[in-house]
Automatic annotation (TrEMBL):
Biological source species: Corynebacterium striatum
GO cellular component terms given for this protein: plasma membrane; proton-transporting ATP synthase complex
Keywords attached to this entry: ATP synthesis, Cell membrane, CF(1), Hydrogen ion transport, Hydrolase, Ion transport, Membrane, Transport
Lineage: Bacteria, Bacillati, Actinomycetota, Actinomycetes, Mycobacteriales
Name by which UniProt lists this protein: ATP synthase subunit delta
Gene3D superfamilies: N-terminal domain of the delta subunit of the F1F0-ATP synthase (1.10.520.20)
Statement: the UniProt record of this protein carries the keyword ATP-binding: no
Record has Iron-sulfur as a keyword: no
Subcellular location: Cell membrane; Membrane
Length: 271
């Protein structure tokens, strides 16, 4: 997103949080998130409407009235307020408006999970799903199939998730799969990142030769928190090829303390 769109999104995010704070956050947030995704589906297929909602030559009140006339009676009040607020902002492109509404829909669902006391659980479920997709090549290939409809891919993933995750994780994952940005693994992992961000945490992706227990994860989170000066979420995976130790990635920084990494560096020095 360009600067104007980032500012517009930040403004509407603040308003969304205010709307939810004054309502029954769990139910309202869940419905608002789902309704925002429905509106995105409409905008995806209607270029004329996208242009009308982002036309800077049209007064903001006129754009807000258009939202109310088209969607006001069909979606939850908070969703309508959010879309009106978005329509009143200045976006760099119609594409940025749609991307902004996707982000707002995700934020609403994550705020609902937070109100339910499940935001940490949702973060963990989404991370574990991204790990499953990484290890299940056939499933990931089916979900990446460009010839398959969004409905078919969502149905496939829903059958995998049913009864195994919270309603928030399921709704977020299904939306991401139905409207891909990169690939299923990275798209779902990005949702886990967003959940961590809303908790004021930064994700450390940790790969170890053996499974970490809860106390080890907690100790590692505390140690990394002191190093980076902020709270950390540990997302860990097992890779026996590391032989021992661990590799840690925080953003673009990689700390490789694995046995395999040490051997590779030693071989490089001896070459």
């Amino acid at each position: 997103m360009k600067a104007a769109s980032r500012e517009a999104l930040a403004s509407v995010e603040f308003k969304l949080d205010q709307f939810l704070a004054s309502d029954n956050a769990v139910a309202s947030a869940a419905q608002a998130g789902l309704d925002l995704f429905e509106v995105v589906d409409v905008l995806d297929t209607d270029r004329e409407l996208r242009v009308a909602l982002t036309d800077a030559a049209v007064p903001a009140d006129t754009r807000k009235s258009l939202v109310q006339n088209l969607f006001g009676s069909k979606i939850a009040p908070i969703a309508a307020q959010v879309i009106e607020a978005a329509a009143a902002e200045q976006w760099s492109s119609t594409r940025d408006l749609v991307k902004g509404l996707v982000s707002l829909g995700r934020r609403a669902l994550l705020r609902g999970a937070e109100a339910q006391g499940q935001l940490g659980q949702v973060e963990d479920e989404l991370f574990r799903l991204s790990s499953i997709l990484k290890n299940e090549a056939e499933l990931t290939q089916l979900l990446s199939d460009r010839t398959a409809t969004s409905a078919r891919k969502r149905g496939l993933l829903a059958s995998v998730l049913y009864g195994k995750v919270t309603m928030f994780s399921e709704a977020l994952a299904l939306q991401a799969i139905g409207r891909p940005e990169q690939n299923p693994i990275d798209d779902v992992a990005a949702l886990a990142d967003y959940a961590a961000q809303l908790q004021g945490r930064t994700i450390a992706r940790v790969t170890t030769a053996g499974e970490l227990n809860d106390s080890q994860r907690a100790a590692l989170a505390e140690k990394l928190g002191k190093i980076y000066g902020r709270a950390m979420s540990i997302h860990s995976e097992v890779d026996t090829s590391l032989l021992g130790g661990m590799a840690i990635r925080v953003g673009d920084e990689v700390i490789d303390g694995s046995t395999a990494g040490k051997i590779a560096r030693l071989r490089a020095k001896m070459a």
